[in-house]
Design a protein that fits this description.
Length: 985
Amino acid sequence: MSSFSTPAIELIQKTSFRTAAIGRIKLDEARAFFSILPLLLAFSPLLAFLLFSPLLLRLLRSPPKRWSHCLLLLPRPSLLVEETDVGDAKLRQVVSGLAKCCSPEDLTNRRVVLITNVKPGKLRDVMSEGLGSNMSVSTIRVICYYNGQIVRTKTDVKYEGSETCIAPLKIPIECTFQQLIDMIYSKTTIDKRRFKLVLICKYPLRNGNMFQPFPMRDDSSVREMLDLVNTTTIDEIELYIKVVRVKAQLNQSVGGHEDLFVRDHYNVAQSVYGCGPSTGAEPDTGPDGDDDDSADEEGNDQDVNDECAGDDDDVDIDGNASSFRTFNQVLENEQGIYVSAQAPSCDVSNHPDDETLDEPSPGNYHLPPTPQFQHVENLDIVVASTWTPWVQHTTGCSSGEFVIGQVFNSKSDLQEAAKIYSITAHQEYVVVASSTKLLVLRCKKAEECQCPWKLRAMVVKDTSLFVINKYTGPHTCVNPCLNRDHHQLDSKLVASHIKALIKAQFILSTAAIQASVMEKWGYQISYKKALDGKHKAIRQLFGDFFQSYTKLPRLFLAIEQSNPGSIVIWKTLENNMPNTEILQRVFWSFKPSIEGFQHCRPVISIDGTHLYGKYKGKLLIAMGCDGNNQLFPLAFAITEGENTDSWGWFLACIRNTVTQRMGICVISDRHPGIMAAMSDPHLGWAAPSAYHRICMRHFASNFMTRFKDNILKILVCRAALASTERKFNKHMNTIGRINPEALQWLEAVPLQLWALSHDGGRRYGLMTTNISEVFNSVLKGARSLPVTALVQLTFFRLKGYFVARRELGANRLASDERFTPYVDAQIQARVVKAGSMEIVLYDHVQGLFHVKSRRGRTHRLNLHEKKCTCGKTLLYGFPCSHLIAACQHRCVDFRLFVEGYYTTQSYYDTWASLFHPIFNEDEWPLYGGPTIVPLDSMQRTGSGRPRSTRLHNEMDVREGKTPITCGLCKQLGHNRRSCRNRNQV
């Protein structure tokens, strides 16, 4: 038995303690026994034997309870044993007694074994109060991770990879750096001649639950790592190994060794969620498959007992170490493979090609949950990959079959691998047993065709890893006919397949999902299964719809915390449940948008659009327009619908919290709620504080719905776009001659609402709400997501706009460009046009000119008042061709007539404000208010595809599309089925 030069206490867990190896002595009773035993032996040996033999037997059978002075009576060197079962309180009593009874010199050269159920991390406080430096752990448990990559985040460091392996080590407290390297080489069977090791420790920081990488370079760093058990609450140390290939010499033999696929980069700036081993317990997923797909997967119950009985020698659930020894043998002898069925284009064989060793993995295929709205880099690799681990690559042997000892990151990875194997092999299986620790599968036709295929896997103790301990394959059965669908091709597997597609394109139709599954696996799944798979993929990526309402307050608090000055306004309803409120409306606007709008033209376009998720509602949007004629998102709101109250509330929020600019022009459709809110003097949007204008496209659509005449509709659009009253009156007279009732309908609507010639320059030439509808199309796919994902999407979309356009403005400022690209192009075209005009000066003092165009049209121009009879200078805010011609004639700089909103400086100032990143969800601020829940009546009750709530009209018909022609009467606008002359033919 080895001795130590310094006093030490060795901690042994109760589960691995063997009484046959170490004796137990109850020291407090032994002291009395040894004190009177010499007297009795001298007086009467027989009496001493009769009196103390029962006591001696009891001492040998019962565990000791506390330390005692009799330690000094034991020979040196000796073994002192103590056992306690009552937590750290009892342990504290034991250690304090040992400190009182024994000095450090008394413990020198003795091995003290403390058998307890208290974890090593709990031992720290007891050590500081009891023996202090005299008490330490002799060996430290270190878990080494290799054959993967190190992923570093802001608050954590992880080790991930589809082929990650672990090697548990017990390292002496006095271990050196070289000894640690040798132990790792020996444990992992990595060839030291071909690979060198870079060791990174997962080091905890004192400020909260944060970890950072700590490189191991020398003996002092190793001692610092091993001291973590005594100075922190961790029970075991995680050591990450980066394997670097050593360049082989010309005469160096490199054959006969298995290669490890290693990623070369580990310092990743953002959080990447991979499929590495997890320390959490695996939840009970129940039978393999989902609620809609697993009805027929229950096997014969009588086989469950047959599979589970008599197998404790393979994997011991009750605490025996046989399962862990088996797992270690897999690591040492076979270099156990970690397979993630979601990692395409990944070689999972035991003998990868040498050429792939110097190349990094083609990407990380577990996409991050938050934020979910960045551009997906290398998406073509993810989507276009034809990787199937059962054909071109192997899962452990060249035949593509499973192998005994094969290790999976989790039970779900094993289930998915089994599904893909069965689909590729065109075979089906049933689940015999499924729990958090066991999975047993067998062929569906085992009894019918006597197929021997069977798979049994169990969890590795204290991990979430699953290892195959029994396998019989391949299938020997055949299918009697071709099947269009496959039982293992369930909605859960479909969701796993399309998650990358959903992330890249929210607008993914069910038909596209069916086509993608058909192309990958050759099976035609049902519409319902494809739709369920889409819904599950959305939930996996963006969370639950109901829970998103409860998380919404914390998300807005995080936005307000990271971007101070952002505005969030709530309107809730009382609920019958205590401490809960129903969300009716929520308004938000980001601080950069509020600041940037001060440099935009005073024009706002507002519109509403439907939400298509689990809960109904409307998304209201307010958009501005920058000097480059690009949309500028200003404010958003989620409401119960479009009505007078909701629109009035939305506009009031904008006026009170976002902008108080006077003379703002608001462009919208003719929704009654908007019309009523704009005319309400208490909301601050009545003239002259603001001016309301109607979208020309919606106005023409209303006209078309009323009169059903396409020629009249074209004339209405021409009249609305006319820049002069002369042209406007010309088109109106034409409409009156064709249909006097249509003319009366148009004149009943105030002309300044829809006619550019009567606008007075409020619109700046913006005739439609296209800037709002364009952003609606950007959010089209996101409108079917939970509300938290929708809010995050608005944040990240705006962040992307600000970053790209801020850079454009900075580049143009650096190039000394005076105006935005949009105005530059307009002015250049008008300069060319002005070169062919004739100029007649009438008064150089007042700046009166007479300008004649090449076509013979004449216009009167007042240079001092910046007025031209064409009206375009006033309507658009930059000079018309006539004004440019007059300026060139008098050598006047026409750029002075361009409004400041179009300058490069104003454009840069519009997008100059910065968006600051939102914290991760676990770092969001705590919310102390009532729980926010959705209104029950807003939930969609129907199953399947939600019914479209859009009111379709003639605007939904694509312009330029060839009209329908009847095959009978050859007329336009209908087909044979709806032809009036159908019965006459």
